[in-house]
Amino acid sequence: MTAARIVETNEGIQSEVTAEIFDEFAKGMRDKGWNGVTEMISSGIHGGDILEIGPGPGYVGLELAKQINPRTFTGCEISPAMIRIAEKNAKEYGIAARYVQGNGMNMPLPDVSFDCVISNGSMHEWENPVEVFDEIYRVLRPGGRYCITDMRRDIGFLKRYMIYFSTKPKEIRPGFLSSLNASYTQEEIQKLLDSSRLRDGTVKKDFMGLSITGEKN
Ligand SMILES: C[S@@+](CC[C@H](N)C(=O)[O-])C[C@H]1O[C@@H](n2cnc3c(N)ncnc32)[C@H](O)[C@@H]1O
């Protein structure tokens, strides 16, 4: 049986120090090629105006932008510390990304202004995912695509501790566990999606996580 979800607090990832440690972790994932970009592209994410929700240090969106060369790339991120790091990283990539500080539940972005919305590893931190799903619908143009990926809580004991002990730097390990405990199962996300404006989307689970993909009609 899967343990009940334990909601994450806002502490940790929002601070300057944790953002630096997360940057080191995310850079390591990027260097191993574990960024989920191939899956995003095969789900239909293409060029145009792209929005990423919760980019953190930015590597996932920047790797995507490197491959698909979008017209514009915007990140909506709640943590100013993460935005500072993402801006520095975008400069190193030579990509003109724009990061705005905001909450995915109420984004400071105009209606129908994006062709694609992506998000990786952030959904488990959203206070109310349904509000973010509705916001994704609001900012997408008709025919726009979305791809939201995150970990899932029901990966089982073995994978949980295999990943825990291989995660570097070591300081990120407690945060990994609390994120995993705050993440959703496929069934939970399906229920939330059904009560949102993204109800036509598809929820899938894979070895490590889940994805929500679809198109705004
Ligand atoms: C675990 S990190 C993942 C970062 C990045 N997407 C990645 O895959 O490496 C989650 C990020 O989502 C951000 N975040 C959490 N809740 C958010 C919200 N409601 N709106 C916007 N960003 C949020 C956090 O500040 C953090 O930078």
UniProtKB/TrEMBL annotation:
<keyword id="KW-0489">Methyltransferase</keyword>
<feature type="domain" description="Methyltransferase type 11">
    <location>
        <begin position="51"/>
        <end position="148"/>
    </location>
</feature>
<keyword id="KW-0808">Transferase</keyword>
<dbReference type="GO" id="GO:0032259">
    <property type="term" value="P:methylation"/>
</dbReference>
<dbReference type="InterPro" id="IPR013216">
    <property type="entry name" value="Methyltransf_11"/>
</dbReference>
<protein>
    <submittedName>
        <fullName>Class I SAM-dependent methyltransferase</fullName>
    </submittedName>
</protein>
<dbReference type="GO" id="GO:0008757">
    <property type="term" value="F:S-adenosylmethionine-dependent methyltransferase activity"/>
</dbReference>
<dbReference type="Pfam" id="PF08241">
    <property type="entry name" value="Methyltransf_11"/>
</dbReference>
<dbReference type="InterPro" id="IPR029063">
    <property type="entry name" value="SAM-dependent_MTases_sf"/>
</dbReference>
